[in-house]
Every structure is written in C-alpha cells, then in structure tokens.
Amino acid sequence: MGTPIRRGVEAGLIGGLVLVYLAMVGMITKFDELVLIGTQVTLGLVLLALPPLGAALAAARPRVVGGRVDRLGPLEGLTAGVTAGAITGGVIAAWLVVVDRIGIDRVRSVFIAVSPALVDVLTFGRGIAGGVAILIVGGSALGALGGAWRSLRFGLRRPVAIGVGVVLLMGMLQRIVPTILDELNIERDWLYSKVTRGLTWMGATIVFVVAAATAAFWIDRRERTAAARAEPGRADTRGIARTVGLVAIVAAAIVLPHLAGSIVSEILGTVGVYVLLALGLNVVTGYGGMLHLGISAFFLIGAYASALLTGANLVTAFGLVAPRFSANLNFYVALVVVVIIGAIVGALLAAPVLRLRGDYLAIVTLAFASIAVILATSNWLQPITGGPQGLRDVTDAPLFGISFQDPQNFYYLVLFFCSIAVYISWRLAWSRTGRAWNAMREDEQVADAMGVNTSRYKLLGFAIGGAMAAVGGALFSVKVGTVQPGSFEILVSITVLAVVILGGLGSVPGVVVGALVLLGLPGLLSQLEEYRLLIYGGALVAIMILRPQGLIPNVRRSRELQEEERTQDAWQEIFAQKEQAAAEQADAATAAATLEEGS
Amino acid sequence: MTRRKGLALVALFGALTLVTAACANDEGGGGETGTTGTGGTGAGGCEADQFGCVEVGSGEPITIGTLLAIEGDVAFLGLDSQYGVELAVDYLDGAFDGTPGQIAGHDVTLVNENDGCSAEGGQAGATKLAADAQMVAVIGTSCSSSALGVADQILAEKGILLVSPSNTNPNLTAEGVTTGFYARTAHNDKIQGAIVADFAIQELGAKTAATINDESPYADALAAVFRAGFEAQGGSITTFEAIQSTDTDFKPLLTSIAEQSPDVLYFPDFNPACALISKQAADIPGLKDTALIGSDGCADPSFTETAGAAADGNYISQPDTSAFTQGDFYQSEFLPAYQDLVGDSPTAAFHAHAFDAMNIVADAIEAVAIDNDDGSISIPRTALKDALLATSGYEGITGTITCDPLGDCATDVTIGVYQVPAVPFDDPKATPVFSETKTLADVAA
Amino acid sequence: MAEVGGAARGRALGRLERLPIRRIVLIALSAGVLGAVVYGSYKTLTLPEGQAYSASAWRDFIVLGVAQGAVYALIALGYTLVYGILRMINFAHGEVFMAGAFASFFFADAWKQSGFMDDQPWLSVALLVVIAMAVSVMVAVLLERVAYRPLRGAPRLIPLITAIGASLFLQNTFRGLFGSQTRGYPKPTGLEGTWTILGIPMQKVQVLVLVVAVVAMVALTLFVARTTTGRSMRAAAEDAEIASLMGINVDRVIVTTFVIGGMLAGVAGVLFALTFGNISYFMGFAPGITAFTAAVLGGIGSISGAAIGGLTIGILQSVGPALLLTGVDVPSPFQLKDVVTFLILILVLLFRPGGILGTGEAEKV
C-alpha cells in the first residue's frame, strides 16, 4: 500500500499547488461570476473541483516502470485517489488558514486577487473552519471518484463523462444558446433561467440524460460495426461512412449561420479570418519548418491594401477625408492585387534572411511585424494610412447586390476563401513542392545536397503564406469596415501560432479545429477573455511537451516528431504515453477485446 | 451488449418524456406574456415605429447593455464607467443603498460586454448585444474606435440606442457620419483641445508648442485639435512627435524637442508614458522653462506615483470636477457610494459621465414607455431615441445636459487645467488653476 | 525543378538558379539601405542653422544612448548565455527580468515608506538586488525544469515555441497575481540627481547601470574562462554529447547557466526599475526583444558581443532617428526609432550573418 499513498501524496501536492495558483491569479473568483446550473454551480466551483479530481486521476493512472505497465488494483486506485484528493484539499485549506492568519487585507495589498470574495468562494460562506472541513472532505470525495474512475466499465464512464461535459458546455454557452433558441422561436425557459442566466436543474438533467444516452448508443453502435467489420467476407463500409460524414460536415457548415443566428455567424467570421492566417502560417512553419512570427504584418498589409485599393475614408480629428493614394477598384479585382502584394512582400522578407538560421528568422520576422504596425501608425504615413485613427468605410465587397458586411453573409464569403485555401494547402502538401519542404524541414543540408533548391522553396513558402494571410486581411477589412493599426499587433502573430500548434503543425484539419477552439470558444465565453492569453501561453507549453503533434496530427509530421533522438527518460515517457494510448484505444472498444469484457 | 443497448434506449426515452413534459409545462406559462404583448394599447405606437417596440412583460426586467473596455490593459477605463452605470441603477430609487431602483415600474438588468477598445472588439460585442431582442439601449463604448463605424452602425440597424460615457472622437457626432441612434455624455475632443490651447496662449502666454501623442486614436485626435487651436491663435508648433505607449526611454526624444525650446509641451497620452515623459523631462536642461501639460488620459494616481516630485508644477487638463453642478452630491454621496461598491477610488475620469448617461436613458424610457393593461410595457425604439436626443436642461453630475440632434449631450463643457500636486485623482477637493466653459458651437467655427 | 533527371545536372541548374536571385536581391537591398543612410545623414548634417541640432544635442544623444545601451547589454547577457549552451532563444528571459523587478518592488515600496531606503540607499539597493536575483533565479530554474528540459533533443522549432508560450504565461500570471496597473518604483533620494563625469552631466542611476554592466561582464568573462564550472559550460556549448561522455553533467551545467542568467536578469530588473521608476507586468517584453536584437547584432553566444550589440542598439535608437530622418522631412522621426534599428540589424546580418563579433557565415541548422 505504500506506493498508492506515495503517488497520491505526489499528485495531491501538485494538484494543491495548481489550485492555489488558480485562486491567486483570480481565476476562481472571476469564473465564480458565471452561474452554470441552478443557483449554486458556478464555473468557479467547477474549476475548484478539477484539481482534486485531476490529481486523483493522475495518481491512479497506470504507469510504466522498467518497461512494464504497472496498473493499480481497484482498491489501490481508490486509496491513491482519496489521498490525492485529500492532500489537494488540504493544501488549499492550509493556504486559506495562512492567509487568514496574516490578514486578508495585508495579503491583498500584494496579491490583488486574494479578496474577501475569493475566501467566500473557498469557504462556501461558512467561515474558515467550515471551509477547511469542506475543502478536505470535498477533496477526498472527489479524489475517491477520480481514484475509482478507472475501475468503472468503459461503456458506463464514457457516456457519463460526455454527459457532464455537454452540460457544462451548455451552461457556459448561456449567452449564445438562448438567443439562438429565441431566434428560432423555441421556448427555452425550461432550459435556461432568466434570473441567473444559467441552466435550470431540470434543463441540466435533461441535457445530461440526452447526451449520455446518445453517447452510450454511439459507443454501442461503434462496437457492433467494429465487430461486424472484423467478420470475414463483409464489405468495408468505412469509405462510404467517411463520405457521408464529409457531406454532413459540409451541409452543416452551409446551413449553420441560419440555424445559429448572428452571434455565432459573427464569431465564425472571425474564426474564418484566423483560419486563413493560420493556413498561411502553416505553409511556412508547418510545411517549411521556418518559425515565422510576422504573419500579423501580412494581415495588416492585406487589410490596408484592400481598403486603399477599393477606396476608403481616412479618419482625422477634423472629419473624414480621402487618403492621399487610393483607387476605386472592385473588391474582387483588388483581391487579386492583394494576393500579389502579399506574395511579393513575403518573398522580399525571406530574401535577405535565407542564409540565416532558424532562430534569426524568428527575430527578423518579429521585427518585421512590429515595423509594419509602427509604419501604419506613424505620422509619416498618416496621409495614406490614417495613422492611429485608421481608415473607415471600407467596401462591403458587394456581389450581385449582396452586402458582405452582415455577419451571416460574411460567413459565406470567408467560408468560400477558406475552402480555396484549404484546397491549396492540401494539394501543396502532397505535391513535389510539399515533399521538397518536407525534406528541407527534416534536414536542410541533406535536402540541399540532394538537389532541392532550398532558397527557392523558402521564398515560395513565404510567398504563399504571405498571400494567404493577406487575403485574410482583406476579408477582415470587409468584415469590420474599419482598419486600424491596433488590430494587427504582434499578439495576432502569437495567437495564430498558437492556433497552428494546437491544431497540429502541418495539419490542415488541425488548423481549422485549432482556430475553432482558440477563437471560437473565447468568443462564445466572454468570461474567458481576461485569462485568454494566460491559457494560450500555458497551452503552447503543455502541447509542446505532452502532445507536440497537436490535436489532429499531420501523419508525416508526427512520425518525425516522435522519431527524434531523445534521452533515456524521455523515451520512457514516450513509452508510458504509448502504453496509455494503447490502453485507451483498447478501452475505446476497437473491436472484440472490450466486447468480451462487456458481456 | 443487449443490456447496454436497452439502457441507452430507456435513457433516450426518459429524456424525450422529460422534454415533452417540460415544453408542455411551459407553454401555459410562457403563452400569457406572448399573447398580451401584441394586443396592448401600445400597438398603435409600435406599429408606427420603424423599429417596433421592446415588449417587457409584467414582472420582467428592462434589459440595458453595456459595451465597455472591461478587460485588458484599458480595463481601468471601462470598469470605472461600468461602476458608474451600476451606481445609476442603484440610485434610480433615489438612494445609494445597494437595492437597485426601477424604470417605469420594472427592474433593470444589465448585460455587460467588452468593447476590447478596438474596432473588431466593438463589432463582436455589439453583435452579441444586438442579437438580444429585449435590448433597449446600450451604454458604451469606452473607446471611440470601437464605436466609430462599427458598434454605432450595428446597433443602429436594430434601432438600439448607444450612449457613450467616454467617446471623445469628434467624428462620432459629425454631420453625415453619425447614425442618429448615437449620443454621448463625454465631451467632444474639440472642446478639450481648444480649452488647453486657450490656456497655453492666454494664461501662459505661450508662443511655441510641441506635442507628443501615443498610438491611440484618442491621443492622436486630441493632439491634432490642440495644434489646430494653438496655431489658430497665432502660436506656432515646433515639433509634433509620436511614441509607442510601451516605450520607456523618452530622453533622446525630449532632447530633440528641447532643441527648439518650446514654451509648452502637450502630451495627451496614457500612463505610464505620461508619467515617464513628465519624469524624464525634468532631467533635460533644455526643457526647464517649458510648461508640461497632460490630458485626462494621464489623470490617474499612477501619474504622480511614478513621476514623483518631477511632476510638481506640471498641468493636467480634465473635466472640472469642481464645476459639476451637483458638486455636493458628487463629493458627499456619489464618491462614498463608489468607494463602497468598488473598494477603491475612481481609476478614470468618466464614472460621472456614465452615471449621467444611464440616467438620461432611464428618463427617456420613462417618457416613452407605453403601459399596457396587464402590467407589461412597450418601449418604441425610434421614439426613445427622439426622446433622448431631445433631453434638455437635465441636471447631471457633469453639468447641465442638453443633447443636440447630432448626439452630443455635453454641449456645454467645463474643462479645468490642474497643477500637480493639486489634482482631483490625488485630492478630490483640488481646484483648477484655469477653467473654461465652451459649447460645441464655440469650437465649430 | 530540374533535378528529376540526372542529379548532377539538377544540382548544377540549382546552383545557377540560386545565385542570381539571392545576389541581386541582396545587393539591391543593401545598396538601397546604405544609400538611404548616407543620404539621410548628409541632409541632416547640412540643415541650415536653427533647424540643425546643436553639438550639445549630439553629445546628449550619444550619452543617453550609451546609458540605455548598458541596460540592453545587461539583459542581452542572459540571452547570450542560454543561447551559447542550448542554442535556443529563451524568449521568456524578458519575463524572468520582470519577475525580479516585480518581487523587489514590494520591498522597495515598504522600505521607502519606513524611511530605510533613504537612510541606507546603498544597502537597500543591494538588498533589493539580492531579492530580485533570488526570485529571477527561481523563475529561470523553474522555467528550465518545466518548460525546456522535457524538450531537450526535440527539433529546434519546438523549444522556441515553448519559450514564447512560457513568456505569455509568465506575463499573464504576474498580471493576475499583482494586477495590470503600472506601479511607481521608489528611488532612494541619495540616487536622485546627476554626477558630472568628464564634463558631461549623467544621472546617478545611469552611472550605476554602466558600472554594474561592466562589472557583470568582466566577472562573467572571468567565470567562464577561469573556473571549472565555466570550463564545463564551454565544453557543453561546444558539443553537449561529447562533454557528457567526458564526464560533465550537462544537465547541471544547463541549470547553472539558467541560474547565472537569472541572476543577471535580477540585477538588470532592479536597475531598470530604478532608472525608469515604474514596473508593470509587460515591462519585460519590449526591452527583452530589443536586448535579444542586441545580442544577435553583437554576435549571439559571445559576451563581448552582447556589450557591443547593446551599446550599438542604444546609440542607434537615440542618434539614428535624428541623424537619418530629420533631414529628409520625415515627421516625428523618433516614432520610427525601432524601424531604423531593425533595418540596420537586417543590414548587418546581410553582411555578417553571425553578428558583429560572430563568425562570418552563420552555421546552418
């Protein structure tokens, strides 16, 4: 029994520190303002419950010792989980007592987030002694759940997890779903409370049951089809299933704005613009392996070029005037010019740095991004760019009399260009050019020696990436109708980088999913806004360490990432991960193994 | 296997029953408010109204949005205004007691959105607010860039009134640019810039001036207005420079400005740049005789905290708090209530403007709301806008508020120039060394 | 591409194709930038009396540039050290610097109020430096342990991205912990005012920065050259694998590097805060980028390179805009100081890809 307890203590200490961190940066208090279910269950409470649960799960998870998988038995798992949960609760309780002893006002004069409101959340309004008891007991209870979780049957725990997840998601989307239901004229008072804006208990129960039942049904179906497929002589229907799935996704993408209303369309418009930027970066960084921190400059160039080419008004303190240089081109004609400008600037940026190694490229592209913003803001170029005030009345890109400034229409415009960019990216990946980039990324010297003209492919990569990002900029200027330098800060580059990394370097579907997660979710959840960058930063580190291939890995790329030379313990970690993945796959009912276990 | 499928089916069936039950349950309750809205006495007024009415059912709250910079680096500006709005809702019943008051017999619910202090932030926030059919009016935005051509248009398309406590950009209320559904209680930059120019020329007897603005539209516009006003009165501009708000070393820049030894250096920026300019200018011998003037963007406690003794003798232009017509109310009731709510002193200069903005909106709603027989009310949107823009002689904290048809409600503004250390953000009882009242008509010419 | 057929023919064609594009673009770009520099300086220096800068202004520009450059040099040392050993840009170094400054602020504030700071200016500054060093070292070591060590041996792009993530994470953690507002950093009254050195009045704090920078550089050079640890650091920088075969604990060497980098960042943090009198959670980012640029410009991996790079950037930022832009009627020249700096950086890298003190040709990845 020594091992489970030791594991529990280790995981619990880490869990406790995480919880103290979350409390001290103010996340718990901030998220406590968002009521998810009923009047008591807030996002802050969920955040409070996650560390003990996570610590217990981590403590009870199977691990590799000396090349052998070491699984804990149900009782050992429970012990480890309870210990982890109790320690997590104990750490935060101890912290609370220390804060109370020092005096909350004194602590607050340094750590601004340690407010009476935080203490109130942590003690559940029952005073320090009551709070300490609740934290430890609650932590242990959650720890027990986490420790026992793995002993539960997969067919039961997966639907429950999905059900809880969907309920929380629905709770978090309380600003969006009710408006959608209103727009569709569906009665929704049973689901969302008008007072707290969160889910009602009845609504939450219904959502949970529906989600869990659907998941159970789905898992069951998957097992059966898998079993059926394993039988000899049956036609493989996966191809058909995939086609049907693809058609369904396309159909959903087309009707979505009409189902979901203007808020979702607006957010999807932003996501679409970022998909274009991320696809551009993906060509340079994902395919070519060159770190490019200047994608925001191409975004800026695209936006300003399209605004000036189609004619916009320059904003001054004394009214609107025409910029010194502008044309009155049709948007779609201007777009062609914008693409060419983006490509040329991309190649020009790459040209002087071809000889430099990767890290220097990062600093030069970063410098380029900040130069672009400074020039757009500058008094020197103010007669053209409008300086800090920017340009407004940018064209709405009318086509057959349809204005694309409306979020629902803009969605289709951006969807169209995203589709083109996705197609180009996809074709490029499997073309000779794509293979050349691949070779270059793996080893530039070898590629060079094998006759790949690396300079040319570097230039090409930057040019294509620049052109895609510039299209994103042009569409952004149509969407907002106003172009200001503040929209193109370096932070945009870093956000786009996070999108590409999260999705998976070099993976086109990954880029789309990454943009949906990193821009869609914060768009829907305004409470996250304040901690968005914190989460982005943490995610970049965590993904690079735990899952460098991203959410949806590029097959070729992930192989490469895993075949890297590593030190001994790194290999062990990989083994552990693979073991775990294998265990999970087994769990995920890839055919007969689980079937037998179930019946 | 079979057992599990059975479980799934039972669960699915159970869920469906619950949903049906829930829907059936609520059809009765929800139906009532649904039918009465259209049949009320207000139907006539609503049909005539281009954008129709907002129907607020009996016992339901009136929804007011806020679209302010409540997150990020400029949160000090947006939150300050949001507290002003919250205090106004609290005071609707005539007392700062923590119990919110009512408008036309209905509670008020605030929906807060972030304007991000950017055009795209304004667009995202305004789209969310505009999608809410119950949205009557929005208090916002904090930053002019969020409103101009973005939030003002999105909300105006739905006939939702936008009233800003802190937009000062002249273009928002310019003829042919304003949407008609926009108003503001903040002073137009044209006034502040002109009054500072008057101060420099008339009070200080300055002949030459230099300006430094950061990359924000606010600073750019204010510096431009000041330069125009200063030159119009016979002064000459020696240098107009610009900085990045994240810069920290301004000494080379100040050295180059000192070469022309201007009489006045105007820097309408934000802190810490304001404070660093003030602090570093004290070390430049060539600027010994130059009067340094900051704007309301510099007016928060970190200015004097960072610049320290170097700031003594500098000037700050901002709304003249001593000229607030209800000065006593502001000092003895509003500020303590603010302190209670927030736990801190105001961080920006626009909480009072937000308080006034919310109040004139409330008055306009009272004026146009049509009472229906069942206790519900109908608020015709166009009529509401017309009522708000017709506001005249309202005694607010920031002065007497009279809106002009273009949306400027602070038509008659008193700007004070304070001399450090006697500044309102350090000493609420400070009095300005120069104070002037101008109307928009004065600066239009 | 022509390499499908004979590999040799392809290679020859490739070489032919490669040369002209790169050369032409390079020559055109450098000629353009050089021409602009010469023309701009000529126009500024021949401005008529009254519009031209006085001799004392030029002197001030240079002095201010040197003072600012010393701060950059001090921060740049941290980048250079880590780069020398790990061959990675520690993007989060700016945040390590910020962390030290932030931690010392609370003590500085308390001591200023209690009067201790004004009674004992030197002692209090020394203590502040110690506190800042301790916190910076802690953050730097934690950073290495959590974010960089698991990625040792991964493709070089990966730790670079982690570093950017860590930078963002640290910045926003400090924002969450201590708030987003800028705080005034107190200065002992003993450090107010100026000293006149060689007839040039200089801020006392700036003199302090210069002295500390020189001392830090000399100490660091001696440490790397003379001590056993320094020798193992050089060995690890040369070839980590062989160094470990020779019995050097590379992990420990790397931790030592981060400890020293953190100490330098802590000193720089306090000096930066004293010079500018304020701190905020994003104070590390802009100086960090500039200092990194300085390290690259001087030749990354080289200690004297950091010094030369820092001074060059400092002087470029204060003299550059005035010299190059005033004469050609660009309004608000100082707004464009970063543009000038970065253009010069690119120009230098074109001719000396390894930086001013680096080797002529940059090694390929």
Descriptive overview:
- The complex is a heterotrimer of chains A (599), B (445) and C (365).
- Chain A has 599 residues and is mostly helical.
- Chain A contains 25 helices and eight strands.
- In chain A, a hairpin with a 2-residue loop joins strand 5 (313-316) and strand 6 (319-321).
- The model of chain A is unreliable at 563-569 and 589-599 (pLDDT under 50).
- With 445 residues, chain B is α/β, with parallel strands linked by helices.
- Helices cover 42% and strands 19% of the residues of chain B.
- Chain B has a seven-stranded mixed sheet, sandwiched between helices. Chain B has a five-stranded parallel sheet with strand order 3-2-4-5-6, with helices on both faces. A three-stranded antiparallel sheet of chain B has the order 1-13-12.
- By secondary structure, chain C is mainly alpha-helical.
- Chain C has helices at residues 7-45, 55-86, 93-114, 116-119, 121-148, 157-178, 204-226, 228-238, 240-245, 250-276, 285-298, 303-325, 337-351, and strands at 183-184, 194-197, 200-203, 278-279.
- In chain C, helix 1 packs across helix 12 (303-325).
- Chain C is globular, with a radius of gyration of 23 Å.
- Chains in contact: A-B, A-C, B-C.
- At the A-C interface, helix 14, helix 19, helix 20 and helix 22 of A face helix 1, helix 6, helix 11 and helix 13 of C.
